[in-house]
Specification:
By secondary structure, this protein is an all-alpha fold. 76% of the residues lie in helices and 0% in strands. The longest helix has 26 residues.
């Protein structure tokens, strides 16, 4: 019997941890943004080409320069982001030689690799720009974590107060509200990251994080407020 139970337990799918969920979300967001940009270049902004992603990079970085000068998390966010962008660009574009091939600065023009990459140079540049945009947004996302922490604190306090009022009054418990609101806490957090990191156009961080932080805090408030009156 013990062997049967151990086998059944081993066959159960293991739930993903929070860290693995974050890594998966970041990778999926980057993949989506690259795919959307390539589709856009092919069908929607064909005349803009890689200038579309380059403009996105400039605008997203301007948001960082204007609204995230000071932060509790990083002492110099702009300098930190500049260093990340520079290092990543050096790693994926310069050291690999991609940018040289695309720009036609490689002498061996008879090379098959040269001809292939040069023919899709617009896509290569766009992908490089999108990767840089992704990391700029990732820095902004990290700097925006305090708004979610604040929303969580407010949600906890509000929910506990309403729970105490219900506990000492004639309020009724609702397991339906509790379990459904609890189930939305993690998805709302991850969804806000996924949306912000994947959208194929420039968007101010406040347009994503403020509404999602409100919904995140509201879910926590409902969860705490609908928690059973007696432990």
């Amino acid at each position: 019997m013990a062997n049967v139970e151990s086998d059944s337990n081993s066959n159960k799918p293991k739930k993903k941890g929070f860290i693995s969920s974050i890594v998966s979300t970041l990778f999926f967001s980057l993949l989506i943004s690259i795919v959307i940009e390539c589709i856009g270049i092919t069908f929607f902004w064909t005349e803009l080409g890689d200038s579309h992603s380059e403009e996105m990079l400039n605008v997203e970085f301007s948001y960082l320069e204007q609204d995230f000068v000071n932060s509790f998390i990083l002492s110099e966010p702009v300098v930190f982001a500049e260093n990340i962008i520079t290092n990543i660009y050096e790693l994926i574009a310069v050291k690999t030689g991609l940018i040289e091939i695309v720009d036609g600065t490689v002498n061996d023009e008879s090379s098959t690799v040269y001809k292939y990459i040069n023919s899709v140079g617009v896509y290569v540049k766009a992908i490089i720009n999108i990767i840089l945009v992704f990391f700029v947004r990732l820095v902004i996302l990290i700097l925006s974590i305090p708004i979610f922490i604040l929303a969580a604190i407010v949600g906890c306090v509000d929910g506990l107060v309403r729970r105490d009022i219900r506990r000492f009054g004639a309020g009724r418990e609702s397991s339906f509200l509790y379990y459904h609101s609890k189930a939305w806490i993690k998805p709302l957090l991850i969804l806000s990251w996924l949306i912000y990191l994947s959208v194929p156009f420039t968007i101010h961080p406040n347009a994503v994080f403020i509404p999602m932080a409100f919904l995140f805090g509201l879910s926590i408030s409902i969860t705490f407020g609908s928690f059973k009156k007696y432990l």
